[in-house]
Amino acid sequence: MLELQNIVKSFQNGEEIVTAINNVSLTIEQNEFVAIMGSSGSGKSTLMNVLGCLDTPNSGTYRLDNKDVASLSDDELSKIRNEHIGFIFQTFHLLPKLDVVGNVSLPLRYSDVPAAEAEERALSLIDKVGLTHRKHHKPFEMSGGQRQRVAIARALINRPSVILADEPTGNLDSKTSYEIMQLLTELHKQGQTIVMVTHEDDIAEYAQRVIHMKDGVIINDK
Question: Single GO molecular-function term (predicted)?
Answer without folding.
Answer: ATP hydrolysis activity
